[in-house]
Design a protein that fits this description.
two-stranded antiparallel ribbon, globular, Alpha-Beta Plaits, four-stranded antiparallel sheet
């Protein structure tokens, strides 16, 4: 079907005007396309990762190496989605300060690096995991299809109580899997 703006419009779920590169804590949920169980299974209240789940797990950990403003916090890979808290550090830690490069004629030129947004980080994660899983599928002569559904869910964590509630939800997600809205 050809794009029709009268039918194919999507309302943004992001907070209008909010700077998603701003320091703070963000609760993220990323779901697999059609909620297909791609990352393993829950057994006895514990998530058992398969090879794709291990890729998703390792690449989440590697985000702290990729982004200097990303702090690793609570996260959980589930059979068909993942939850995580992304903590972005303050602007001085993100590389938003000026980097000065000396030119041969002793003049200086200042350039500012732009801090990555939550969307940049989630987009990179989804891409890296998709590529890793695609290689895995190809090595087994299988077709993967789309790994992730479009977009992701985010919630800005505004206080310590919300942080504790969300952290507990993430940590306890495997034990509540049979009642989870993502469980099919």
């Amino acid at each position: 079907m050809k794009y029709n703006p009268l039918i194919h419009h999507r309302r943004s779920i992001r907070l209008k005007g909010y700077d998603y590169s701003k320091a703070g804590a963000y609760f993220i949920t990323i779901c697999c396309e059609d909620r297909i169980h791609r990352f393993g299974k829950v057994e006895g209240d514990e998530m058992i990762l398969n090879q794709s789940g291990t890729i998703a797990y390792n690449e989440w950990i590697n985000l702290s190496d990729r982004y200097s403003n990303f702090e690793l916090d609570v996260f959980q890979i589930m059979p068909n989605h993942m939850h995580g808290i992304i903590v972005l550090s303050d602007l001085n830690a993100v590389g938003a300060t000026l980097a000065v490069a000396h030119e041969e004629n002793e003049l200086t030129k200042a350039t500012a690096r732009v801090a990555p947004t939550i969307a940049n980080i989630v987009g990179a994660y989804k891409s890296i995991v998709s590529n890793g899983c695609l290689q895995l599928f190809k090595s087994h002569d299988k077709t993967m299809g789309r790994l992730w559904q479009r977009n992701y869910y985010e919630h800005i964590i505004r206080d310590e109580r919300a942080y504790q509630n969300i952290s507990n939800y993430i940590i306890n997600n495997p034990s509540k899997w049979s009642k989870d809205k993502f469980h099919l």
